[in-house]
Amino acid sequence: MKPWMKYSFLLFLCAMMFPRVSVAQAASDTTLTVVDSLYREDQFYLGFTYNILTDMPESLSSSGFSGGFHLGFIRDFPINERRNLAIGTGLGWSINTYGQTLFIGEEPGNEQTIFQSLEDLDVNYDRNRFTTHSVELPVQFRWRTSTAESHKFWRVYTGLQLGYVYYFRSTFIQPGNTVRQTEVPEFDRFRVGATFAFGYNTFNFHVYYGLNPFFDQDARIEGEEVGMNALRVGLMFFIL
Length: 240
Description:
Blueprint: H1 3-29, E1 43-54, E2 67-78, E3 85-99, E4 102-106, E5 113-117, H2 118-121, E6 127-144, E7 154-174, E8 177-181, E9 190-200, E10 203-210, E11 220-221, E12 224-225, E13 229-239
Antiparallel strand pairs: 1-2, 1-13, 2-3, 3-6, 4-5, 6-7, 7-8, 7-9, 9-10, 10-13, 11-12
């Protein structure tokens, strides 16, 4: 083979290989990013609240610390193309305590509930409160600034929360005497409340207001309905 033919053949091989090398180099330098255009904000939530009783008779007042612990899961259903508007619903669990001056007892023999104000009785006691354990169904309208690429965003969630109190206990403690009541027919175990949460990323301010009173119209102190509504304020943590 003549020299010029050898050189021509080598140049031909280089020309054939160069595009392949270029393509391989470009492929190795490119990072493939997959964007989920159908993302959801499915979230677990965990919250801590300070509980306040409202709409009480004048003879009653709050007493001691009242708090709540809440956790659950909410399924996200976006309702627009941008997916920053959604309806959320799920299932949760909540435990709450309410310290106050309402004594709940029972008449011996006929098991009729007694409601009295500890302020009117003028007695010394160490603790008086009632505790609820509930299963809850939150239903939310959700607005956020989230995108498929970032989970750090502003949010405003508002809606209703339905609940059922499967465990109730009223506890009165004084030196040498403890009164506990778990079966109170006048207590309304079905709960309905309005909720509002706003914040950024994981940390969010949370408010719950009960729309129905804890006790029905048969619970009275000197002819006045006991009532009582719950106001809970605190922090809610949303975890994807």
